[in-house]
Amino acid sequence: MIESLTSVLRLNRVSLWDLVDILIVGLLIYEVLKLIRRAHAVQISIGVGLVVGLYYASRFTPLQTLNWLVRDMFGYIVFAAIVLFQADIRRALAHFGRAPFFRYLNRPEATDETIEEVVVALRMLSEQRQGAIVAIEREIGLGNYVESGIPLDAAVSYDLLVSVFRPGSPLHDGAVVIQQDRIAAAACFLPLTVNPSVSKNLGSRHRAAIGLSEETDAVALVVSEETGLLSLVLDGQIEQDLEPDQLRYRLEALMLRRTGRQPREEAKPLGA
């Protein structure tokens, strides 16, 4: 073993391919560690580590029944891990797909007109305290969620958005999904977050927005029906009590940043 370690450490035998190999493995380990950083993933990983520990302990002890049981469980553990980590695996693969050499495949960003129509509509809904949730697609497609709703394929306008979320409208309970400057669908079902750290004061719309942002890179906008407050959700994090100007600035910073254009004005600090 010492001789093997010594041979590995001889720098004169390390080629360019060895360095590339180490770099790729290190990147994969880093991404795996990012996946298990979430609270429930850490607990599952500890459980898997315990099973692996029991397996090796049974190999070096006379615990034959335990060794047989754990050995037969390994095949099922792989499938269980795929089911339990499906959202995390999907997010990781999407993250790899956003590498710089894939940028030419990205969807076009939202335009100033789309952002303005959305902000005006949400401001009107906020003033009237009418609940709403709007999801804007970025790089990860939202086709699965569009299929769960009523297809519209209409131009983005504040009149249409306000009409959709009227209390008497049959479409007001779900989410509106915007794809490539078009309202793709309304009344869409979004996944609710299961993160235990999310405040219990948040309603189903906020939880759905957080759940969507945990699985995709979409920007989710929420109007609270109880308070009329505007919220922006991204990457599982929620920004609450935004003014319309702040919301406009945040959307421009998120949706227009790769076009080389800059937001038109500075946002006021949160809580100002």
Strand-residue proportion: 5-15%
Structural class: alpha+beta
Instruction: Give a quick account of the main beta sheet: strands, pairing sense, barrel closure.
Output: 7 strands, mixed
CATH superfamily of the largest domain: DNA integrity scanning protein, DisA, N-terminal domain
Strand order of the largest sheet: 2-4-3-1-5-6-7
The quaternary organization reads as: single chain
Averaged pLDDT, please?
Answer: 77
The separation of the N and C termini measures 64 Å
List the defining traits of the structure above.
272 residues; alpha+beta; YojJ-like (1; 2 domains; seven-stranded mixed sheet; 7 strands; elongated
Report what the structure shows.
The protein has 272 residues and is α+β, with helices and mostly antiparallel strands. The protein folds into 2 domains: 2-104, no CATH class; 112-259, YojJ-like (1 (3-Layer(aba) Sandwich). Helices cover 49% and strands 14% of the residues. It is built from 10 helices and 7 strands. A 7-stranded mixed β-sheet has the order 2-4-3-1-5-6-7, sandwiched between helices. A hairpin with a 2-residue loop joins strand 3 (175-179) and strand 4. Helix 3 (39-59) packs antiparallel against helix 4 (64-84), helix 6 crosses helix 8 and helix 6 (112-127) runs antiparallel to helix 10 (244-255). The longest helix has 21 residues, at 39-59. The protein is elongated. Residues 101-105, 258-263 and 265-272 have low confidence and may be disordered.
